[in-house]
Here is the input.
Amino acid sequence: MQPPAGQQPAEKPKTLTVTIEGDVDAELAPVAGNLTTLYFQCYPKLLARFENTNKSAPRHIRIIFDSKLNIPAHCSGNRVTVGVQWLKKHPEDFALLTHELTHAVQMYPRGEPGWIVEGIADYARHVYAPKNKKAGRFLRV
Here is the structure.
């Protein structure tokens, strides 16, 4: 079907991809698998809910396992860095990825109020992350 006269055809959505990098050992291999699965389940929902129609969020995410990271996780652009120490103590907390993926979708300019950025990410984790009673309620990561 052709678009109406004077309108451009709708652009097809880009394929979503993810890579796992860094310090993944045999103990963390199942966690890496869970994070990969969660990415494909969760990220499309986050894009549909929070993406700015004027500024596309990344369609390729790099999940980097870092054994030197002293916090659970952080996001910068399309890079989500996760703390190996945290995941070894809390392997069931793979929902932290939902929080960080929300930041990848947000892509707000620097200087915006941090409380709203983190609040939206916490909300997304609560609504879009899989429910895991064993993980309990981890606060903002």
The chain has a mean pLDDT of 84. The helical segments are 29-50, 84-89, 96-106, 114-128.
